[in-house]
Amino acid sequence: MISRLAAFALLAVLVAVPLALAHEGATGVVKERMDLMKRQKDDMKVIGLMAKGSTKFDPAKAAEAARDIETTATKIHELFPEGTDGGHSDAKPEIWRKWDEFTGNADALQTKAKALTAALDAENPGWKTDFKAVIDACKTCHKSFRAEKD
After folding, report:
1. Eight-class DSSP state of 150
2. 91 has which bridge partners?
3. pTM of the predicted model, to two decimals?
4. CA–CA separation, 105 vs 142, rounded Å?
5. How far is residue 113's CA from residue 73's CA, in Å, rounded to a whole number?
6. 3-state SS class at 87
7. d(CA 87, CA 91)
């Protein structure tokens, strides 16, 4: 039976897979944010495979991925200027109507990723709880502010 954490990690990866296809035709800031989200997805995959036990746990490599999520989360605000929804973007207009909530979600991701980085740097055996918090932060934002794929 697949563990709950493994299921969450798999879900995070599967939800992000359509990003690769969405990149076709995107330009400017929309492409920049799609590239950032793909980078975060790749980082999540590195950690998720370790969480599931599919790859050997390497705390330094996992911490590097978590640190990258923390760093990229700080850039989210600037990659969503008003008027960049529609077209190739999966951004819902609610982002700009609920800007404080949206940026609060990005800030929460950064905070959760920072906690995960610290846990991994310390080789804390409870790091998977912090990883789940990062997954939840991603899901919260995507649920509210990312358009569903057909």
Report:
1. -
2. 146
3. 0.81
4. 10
5. 9
6. coil
7. 10
pLDDT in tens, 42-81: 999 999 999 999 999 999 999 999 999 999 999 999 999 9
| 142 Cβ neighbours under 8 A, 6+ residues apart | 15
Q: What is the DSSP letter of 54?
A: S
Structure token digits, residue 3: 């563990």
Helix/strand/coil for 58: coil
User: 118: which residues sit within 8 A by CB, 6+ positions away?
Assistant: 124
Closest C-alpha to 40, from 102, 112, 93, 101: 112
Would you state the structure tokens that stand for residue 118, as one six-digit string?
A: 């610290």
Fold of 4-145: Four Helix Bundle (Hemerythrin (Met), subunit A) (1.20.120)
Q: Domains of the chain: which residue ranges?
A: 4-145
Q: Are 122 and 63 in contact (CB under 8 A)?
A: no
